[in-house]
Amino acid sequence: MADSRIANLAKILVHYSTKIEPGDQVAVTGHAIAEPLLLEIYREILRAGGHPNMLTRMSGTDYIFYSEANEEQLKYVSPMQKMAIEEFDALIQLYSGTNTKSLTNVDPVKQQISAQAQGELFQKYMERTASGELDWVIAMYPTPAYAQDAEMSLQELEDYVYSTTYADTDDPVARWNEIHDEQQRLVDWLEGKKQVVVKGPSVDLALSIEGRPFINSDGRNNMPSGEIFTSPVENSINGWIKFTYPAILRGREVSGIEIHLKDGRVEKATAAKNEDFLIAMLDTDEGARGVGEFAIGTNKRINRFIKNILFDEKIGGTIHMAFGAGFPECNSKNVSAIHWDMICEMRDGGKIFVDDELFYDSGEFVVDR
Amino acid sequence: MTDTRIQHLARTLVNYSIRVRKNDRIAIMGSVDAEPLIREVGREILRAGGHPMPVVQLSDWNYLFMSEANEEQLSFVNPFFKMVNEEFEGLIMIRSDLNTREMTNIDPKRHGIQAKAFAPIMETYMKRSASGDFRWVITAFPTHALAQDAHMSLEEFEDFVYKATFADTDDAVAAWRKIHDEQQVLVDWLAGKKEIHAIGPNVDLKVSVEGRRFKNSDGDRNMPSGEIFTSPIEDSAEGWYWGSYPAIHRGQEVLGVKLTFKAGKVVEAKAERNEVYLKEMIGLDEGSCRLGEFAIGTNTGIATFSRNILFDEKMGGTMHIALGSGFPELGGTNKSGVHWDIITDMREGGQIYVDGDLFYDSGTFKI
Asked: Strand ranges (DSSP E) for chain B?
């Protein structure tokens, strides 16, 4: 019998995150190493009455693709992937690679060509997910590669993944429903509010959220989740923030980042390590120096930094901001090719005031809700 | 069919590194992930007339043991391991990690308990390897984990390993013999010399090597190899040394190490990142603030830093020093629980003078 936590995670993904119904066509992507979880997902989709389509990948094909493909091949769009995104009802994607650094030496131009060729499909994906026609969720199957990044043994990472997704509890779906309800009260309270002020040892920021709804990230699209987020009014952000955790983009790590913002634009950016890369990314395009996201992590079981944004941005007691692309569903107008999340500790006395009322203090929501 | 480079590496290990002879009992240690190499090594040992004894571990066995074992179990000495060290003629140790960071959260005290229990065996092992009764070599089999540390795909890392070991050539053994001969010229020239002065953008350090032997590391114990090294006189180091590459010790990475020496001792230690760990190790015991090694890497097939000391310390155009234990067989007397290699680049104007003569300049030997 498989680890019961794997079966639980499969149940969460199928019955809670994507809520598969009879007749649903579901695509499932993951590497061969994730077979134990892929099999349980397959089982649960069948039990829900859906049609599972397994798009299992082999380790190493991405690297071979980028080193061998000619321009015409780089621009090729897989008809299977196209069909899944244009016609299917749900998409379950697993992070399950065997080497997180395998593309380090690939020419970024090749990756760009491939990304551009997928642009139209990506647009379709955004439309169908926004309208609710296509349910999607991203989760992790613990592999030695992610354990190595997390500086853990595989067993420790397994415990961490199954704890933070509540897959180690008897009724994880009930637990995620509770989280949804708790966060919904916060999101409802925030509705119609205007001004957010964040103050603490590492931050002094003011921003407007007028007309910008907060999203309840309750485990439907990311598993684990546990955050509430919005895209702030583009030209409203002023002040400074020090990101207390390393910020990682495309496998590169920048630490000790301090950002000063004026009227929503990054005015000054410094870092203790890899500052050049930080500046280069902020200069990617017009929107990269704007703010696309302001968010509060709420998952108390996510309590350590593991160099994986699926988990790290949800650390209970932290906030994060993303530079670059904002969320259309939050009425964002900021457009960019990057979306770079950076995380700041708040448990050390950080406070959030909303329309002058204390909303959050040192990692806890204090508003009467 | 097996990658022919794996066969070449196996032949190098068996016929060159430990020179297996008829009836030699040779242990092969590695994890299941190294199966293709273990198989080929076994084949070559059989062809050489020896007795291969594979000791194959599950991938995460070490973590399982270190996290579950009680004190009594930690102190238990595996009788098979004891027999290998006390009676066998040879050992081929294959590093084939599936996760190089799996031990990060294990209490270092537990490693200490184990090391103490193994001390008598280590002594036997040292004696038998010094006398030539026990011939051993450490090598690596390319895995995703090692590739990830090197920031490479597995394919790129395979190319890296087989290039560094010359397993990508038709006659790797001939290539290693040539390296042996070239390095022997250097080692012979250095015999009887007294003072070494390394000077350049990253270093200004004087050490005495009077009465100390240089070792020709030609692939007999490390595959790949390509370095010459000695243990300098313990109280002789004067000057400063900057590690231009990350200094890695037990999975901890320290960046921008800068050490200042006076009368052989570290008098100032700074780092751009993880300085606390550096200072902790230097203060660990009596010997950890002194040099146990002074070495020059010569392997030009190793061109990039891979976060793996088996490869990094041999990079052509670099030198390294090690804090902590020295090599008794070279005359070293420094004793410590630490042996921490710290590497610096010499290709940009780094020079080494020996008794006043220019011996090495920007990666090239001048004698």
From this structure: 25-31, 51-57, 90-95, 135-140, 195-200, 203-208, 215-217, 222-223, 227-230, 238-242, 247-249, 252-254, 258-262, 265-270, 291-297, 318-324, 339-345, 351-354, 357-361, 364-365
